[in-house]
Amino acid sequence: MTPKTTHYSVVIVGGGQSGLSLSHCLQQRGIDHLVIEKRTLVHSWRSQRWDSFCLVTPNWQCNLPGWSYSGSDPHGFMVKDEINAWLAGFVEQVQAPALEGVTVEKVSKAGEADCYTIDTSAGRFTADQVVVASGGYHKPVVPRMAEKLPASIVQYHSAQYRNPAQLPEGAVLVVGCGQSGAQIAEDLHLAGRKVYLATGNAPRCARFYRGKDVVDWLADMNYYDMPVTQHPLREGVRDNTNHYVTGRDGGRDIDLRRFALEGMELYGLMTGLDGDTLQFQPNLRANLDHADQIFNGINASIDKFIAANGIEAPGGSVYEPVWAPKEERTTLSLRESGITSVVWCIGFLPDFAWVEAPVFNGRGEPVHLRGVTGVEGLYFLGLPWLHTWGSGRFSGVARDAVYLAERIETVKLARSASAQSVPCVSERSREPASSSSA
């Protein structure tokens, strides 16, 4: 797309499901806008997922604005190609006014004007309001200790992992047991690879319990409607690691203890490397016990809900460990273990350095209430627990997009009625920008 103008009522930075959802809502309200995407629309689902990737939430939760899942398996789990086909239909349906392959380098206030300047690799744009919908997973986390690994060790981040054949022959060390780490470890394990897994304190949950998917029970319990302001942890829930579970082969639990029985080697938190020797904290037992405690706790809450509402359902159960470590192993020799590759699965960090506005906390995270910041006309969308559990997922972004669209429309109408706002001056000249983007 070649923009016909350089000024818009709204500029949306990011063309994933969040940015496109908001575009849909703004189009319904007749609000002119531009979506700027540095790659291609919804690219991350094509480029940052491994080959066997599938949803961990059932298909019925895929509910983007005007584009819900309509296939024949609402309680199944779409695989990568099916997800991308579904998203391609959403892109086609929205027909967003989008500029692809363009990097936003800086967002700032345009002097005394009551609008924003957006400097990009394709020139300068201005907007009355800006929505940052680039997500919160910008910088793959790889610890500095990675530099100390021998050059012969092949290293990938989870965003780069595709399949077991991508890795050289030999054992694989997977670092991290959140959703990506647990599923990648399983992928390698099922392919017959020798896997060493460095665990953390990630929680887990059951796939099915008492006759239904646990997600179905939690939906019945209105968990997914709980706003972050009512969560027991408040904003602290945003720091939580996602529970590990899988939708693979129709959905099942991921039980690291069972993997251990089948030959996977489990260790505690990895802390360093001394020569040829990897070092770990002696906390494997605690990590496994913590995951099981969360697993049983979620099931217990379902038990209480069933009892309180007189629901007929199969009987409940409590998970009993099928394996436990005989001792805490704190060292592992790379040479003796035969490890030839490492997959880092310890997450991402946000990078909003290109947004020049006083809306960030000490960790560089935006401070907001349901995506609305303390600076008028600047919003965030698509972040985990922006408002509810589903805010960063297919299930909840529609609600957030509608809310922001209504807020944007209110501000737009107020500005139109005010004679005090200073109009933007659209400039085609581009000033040097200082930061890189999203």
Question: Please, could you describe this protein's structure?
Answer:
InterPro entries: Auxin_biosynth/cation_transpt, CHP04046_FMN-dependent, FAD/NAD-bd_sf. This is Flavoprotein involved in K+ transport. With 438 residues, the protein is an alpha/beta fold. It folds into 2 domains: 7-138 and 350-417, 3-Layer(bba) Sandwich (FAD/NAD(P)-binding domain), CATH 3.50.50.60; 139-344, FAD/NAD(P)-binding domain. Helix content is 24%, strand content 19%. It is built from 9 helices and 21 strands. The protein has helices at residues 17-28, 44-47, 80-94, 179-190, 214-220, 256-261, 284-308, 334-337, 397-417; strands at 7-13, 33-37, 63-64, 67-68, 98-100, 104-109, 116-120, 123-132, 139-140, 154-157, 171-175, 195-198, 208-209, 212-213, 265-267, 270-274, 277-280, 331-333, 339-344, 348-349, 378-380. The strands form 6 sheets. Strands 1, 2, 5, 6, 7, 8 and 21 form a 7-stranded mixed sheet that branches. Helix 1 runs parallel beside helix 3 (80-94) and helix 1 packs across helix 9 (397-417). It is globular.
